[in-house]
Amino acid sequence: MNESRLNLEDIAKKAGVSRSTVSRVINKEPYVSEKTRTRVMEIIEQESFRPNPAARMLVTQRTHIIGVVVPQISNVFFADNSYFPMLLQGTSSAINEHDHSMLLWLQQDGETRQEFSHRIARNRLMDGVVLCSIVESDPIVEAVLDIGLPFVTVERPLGFPGRPLDQFNYVTVDNIHAASMAVEHLIRLGRKHIAHISGHLAIADGQDRLLGYRQALTRAGMLIDENLIFPGFFTRESGYRGMKALLKHKPDAVFAGGDTTAQGAIQAIHEAGLRIPEDIAIVGFDDLDIATQTAPKLTTIRQPVQQKGMTAVSLLIDRIEERAHGPQRVLLPTELVIRQSCGAIPS
């Protein structure tokens, strides 16, 4: 029989079951015995049967399409930050594993966040969305809340008073603890004037890493010098500009809010004729591939970026399929990876 002409009735007849049983097997519904499920799947494989997507959608009211939203200008996304490609590797892997398709949303040059959120909200093909790099009171989050679209964020959301808490589901790491761990390491190495080039301070990750920096200094009885704090944006450029501005305050160490930021800081330190780590020690955050491509190699906080993407998809599908009740908040582990840039290991 020609593959294009096969339908559920054909599969049901070959398997000796009802059409509704075949439908339940295809849609992974319960109340089908393992023996029957195995028999139906064997026939489906033998016949290379593929359900009609449109018909399947009419029955299940689902498209099996997951949106992944990255509100970043495309040239930043592809040019100097491997965080997002790593995150997408995790999301796409999990989406494929769950037999879904991925729809990737990237903010375009010249497009405001409000315009971007409207573009996402107008699309009704997605069962749910994974939102990355959301800012405080983000209109993208407001848009998906307003249309009732299930979503999971890859950060802790900020600034949505009055919204039901059970609608906010996220996966992240304990950025406060991880940042403190990085700064405490520099303190143990005898550094006295530790600067911080932050990440984007409208994003929870940036705020929490700054807070962790402050807490580590306070616990050590060290004064917090506001001149040693530069607000950045998780970019190489902001790391470069930040380090240029900080050099006049003579820091002996820098905690960068991200590895990409650390790359810019390293460039500025080298241009100033200073040595790493002898004159200025540096620690990053993320453990991206670039961390081992610097000279010297970068001490950093390792976070499981791909696992964040995979976990976000799993949480989202649990919400879509109504297997989860109440808010889901997952904190993944981090670790300090010591390399040459901090001075603990000889160059």
Any descriptors?
347 residues; alpha/beta; 434 Repressor (Amino-terminal Domain); Rossmann fold; 6-stranded mixed β-sheet; 14% strand; elongated
Description:
The radius of gyration is 25 Å and the shape is elongated. It is α/β, with parallel strands linked by helices and 347 residues long. The longest helix is centred in the middle third of the chain and has 16 residues, at 204-219. It has 3 domains: 3-60, lambda repressor-like DNA-binding domains (434 Repressor (Amino-terminal Domain), Orthogonal Bundle), CATH 1.10.260; 65-173 and 305-331, Response regulator (Rossmann fold, 3-Layer(aba) Sandwich), CATH 3.40.50.2300; 175-304 and 336-342, Rossmann fold. The termini are far apart. The strands form 3 sheets. A 6-stranded mixed sheet has the order 7-6-8-9-10-12, sandwiched between helices. Strands 2-1-3-4 form a 4-stranded parallel sheet, with helices on both faces. The protein contains 13 helices and 12 strands.
Write a short abstract of this structure.
This protein has 347 residues and is an alpha/beta fold. 42% of the residues lie in helices and 14% in strands. It folds into three domains: 3-60, lambda repressor-like DNA-binding domains (434 Repressor (Amino-terminal Domain), Orthogonal Bundle); 65-173 and 305-331, Rossmann fold, CATH 3.40.50; 175-304 and 336-342, Rossmann fold (3-Layer(aba) Sandwich).
